[in-house]
Each structure stands twice: as structure tokens, then as C-alpha cells.
Amino acid sequence: MVYEPWAKVIRWLYERFQELGSVYPLAREVEAMPYLFPDPSADDLLRYTFKIHMTKVPGGFKPATVDAIRYILTNPVYIGAWVYDDAMVRENNHPAIVDRELFLACYHKITGRNLQGEPLPGIERRRLHHDSAQAVLKYILRDPSGPLYVMHAKHPNYIRAERATEGQELLMRWTFSISTHVIDDVFLARVKDLAINDQHLGEHIKASIAELEERHTESVISVDEHLAHVRTEIEKTMALLYDNILNLTPQDKQRYNGILEGLRAREAELVAVQENSLHESLQDDMQELSDILADIPAHLDSCTMERKQRVAHLLVESATLEELSVHWVGLTIVWRGPLANRPDVCLIWRQHGARSNTWTAEEDAIVTEHYPKTDKWTMLEALPNRTWNMVYQRALTLGLHRSAYIQAPLPDNFTVSDLRIFPDRDIAMSIVSEAINQRGYVRWLYSAGVAQPAREIGASELESGG
User: Fold this and answer.
1) Which domain holds residue 231?
2) Hey, which bits of 231-351 come out as E strands?
3) pLDDT digits over 399-415, tens only?
4) When comparing pLDDT for 449 and 309, which is higher?
5) How far apart are CA 206 and CA 186, in angstroms?
6) I need a surface site. Which of 6, 65, 75, 295 has the fewest CB within 10 A?
7) Which of 46, 75, 335 is nearest to 197 (CA)?
């Protein structure tokens, strides 16, 4: 049965997509709406059965992602087709709610294929191009919340994208960005230093790959047993559904479908593990990169981006970038196998710091109270994520002036949060002052030649009097 208030919305989506020519401006319009599909009335809830896979918002429902809008615009159900398991079983199964020509125009534009899945002549599907944004740690670097993406081919950046408000934002927003060359230069310099200090780097890589091969062989045996069990459970659940399909309530059907979805997702995960052959790809990389690995300091800088990426894939198990303060970011590298017996950690100073957030009413109140007559330290302590430059500019905007000149020989481009990275305030101030006056300041926790850092930590504590 067609629920006309929602069918009207579906037709509008198709018509609006054809007018705009792209999903993204359509998503921006939907995002700005309080809701897309209105709440059904109480009578309608009793009369119709609703299968809702959208986010509930005041007044109705909205799709949660751009992909959800794409799914609506490419779903043959709306032209009367019977679709099962993402495959079209029969056309003209029920009354259509979208004009067929309109649907096909949208479907062809989004997919580049006909309803049988065949590529359409003259329509090029969007794909990854060879000139897309590249970086050495592409597909490797992540932050604590997930992978970092590489964007902008001419001036690539590592980007974190996320939704700030669940259910309200369809499009991803950039919440972190840093130039790829800042991170990649640090990484490549570290690789060269490690190679200089480790005359047996090639042997360590071979040992790492051998260890991966052994772990993979052991895991496959366990995976095979688990996979057989999951597939048996799928067969049992399907048999139960077939036997009782006429007696199951809609709630029972939904519950069993949920069980099947979970089992099939687990099956896909296990098959992926079963087919994973990381050690084989690493062996291929090691053979093809033997010339670079023989003398990394001499050859690494001059090789292509693709070869640098493969070197990184060969050497790195994981690389994590984390915002520690307004200006400090931390890079943690876990090297493969016995390449290094500890994670490598460094601090990187960003001269321009993180993107400044909008000033809040509470912050404005602090500036109004303290700026005219309070010393710099008190002002900065009250606003730990603001530099003195930022405070000064905000004070000008608010029409404030300092009533007296208060001597305070402090740098203008640091925050108290930058100092809190280090346990000692004096040492922190010394390091921050040094970082402010240098271009591309990097501080590694341990030197490149230290496999076990215990002695170096002890020596550092002695030097600092700790």
C-alpha cells in the first residue's frame, strides 16, 4: 500500500535531484529541513505498515547520510519492481509512485548503469583517478576516532571528517586538517634515521613478514571452524523462517531478519580474514623495493610517491596522529615486528595551531573582566585554549583597552594547553619558546638508534635533574 504523504516526498526528491544534477546540493537542502518525511498520524500508523530505517527527528524522519539519499534515488521499488537481497526479481510487481523515465534518468546519472547492471555507453562512472590526492601515509594514518583521509590533489591534506550532530547533518564536516607534507616529511626523515642506525634493517623486515605469515596460518585454521559454524546457523535460521513464514508476526520477521543480517555480516568478516594475505603482498613489496631497502638514506627521497607509500606499508603496522593541544600534535608509529622494540612517538608543533572556534559568551565575559587590568598569565590561565594574540584581537572587537601596561615577557603565540603537555612548567615554556622560533619543530621521544628506551629515559632525567 502506498502512503501518499511519503510518496509525495519521494517524488519531490527525484524531481529536485534532476533539477540540481547532484546528490550533494540536494543533501544540503534536506539537511536544512527540520524533517523530510512527516510523522504519520495515529490513524495512519494503524492502517499502514512502516519499515523505517531513518533517524527520528522532531516532527518526522530524515535520512542519516548522503548514501541513504542515493539509495532512495536508485531503488527500483519506486517504479513498481520487486527487489530482494538488492536484486530486482520482477518488474511491474506493484503500482509505481515515480515516473519511470524520471527514475531511469536519476538512476543512470548516479550509477552509470542500466537496471541489469550493465555499463551505459557514453556515461563515465565516478572512480578514483590516478591524479587523486596522494600522501606517503595514505590508507595508513589514522587518529583515535578512525582513519584520516587525503584530500586536495594540488595541496594535499590529511583530513578528519565527521558529523557534529547525529541525525541533523547528512554531510561530513572537516574537524581536523593538516598538510600532508608536515607529517610525511617527519615520517620519511625518521625512516632514514632508523636505517642509518640499523645496519640489519632488511633482516628485520624479513623477520617481520615471516612472523605475519606464521600468524596468518594459525588464524586461518580457527577461522575455518568459526566460518563453518556461522554458515550452519544461517542455514538453520533460513530453514526456520521457511517453515514458519505464514505464522510469524511482523515483529518476529524483523527479529529474524536482524539475526540473519548479523550472521551474514560475521560471515563476510570471516571470509575477509580467510582471504587476507598481507604477508604475501609484503613479500612482493620487499622484492620490488630491494634497491631502496638496500640504501634507504640514499634512495628514499628520489623515489616516486607510489614507492614511498609501499615502503611505508612495508615498515609500518600502524600510525596514529592525535591533537594534543592547540599547537601540538602527536604522531605515534608502531613499526612491524622486530624493526623497533617500542612505538615511536614524536611531538610536532603547528605554528598556526588548530582552527579557532567561535568565541563563546563565557569567554567574552572573561576577556571583559580580566583584559583591562589583569596580567597575561592570569588571562591565559582563564582561557587555556587561547593565545595572547587571539585575546588581543577579541578585546579590540569588544572595544576593550588595557588600563595599564603590565610587563610580561611571554610569547604571543602559545596557549596554556600547549604547556600542559609537559609535567614541568619551566621546561614546557623553554620547549614552546624554542618551537615558536623554529620552522617545522619536531621532538622525538627517543633517538632513532634506541631500541630499548630505558637507558635514554634515565639519561634524560639526569640531565633535567629529575
Assistant:
1) 205-280
2) 316-323, 328-335, 344-349
3) 998 876 666 677 888 99
4) 309
5) 25
6) 295
7) 335
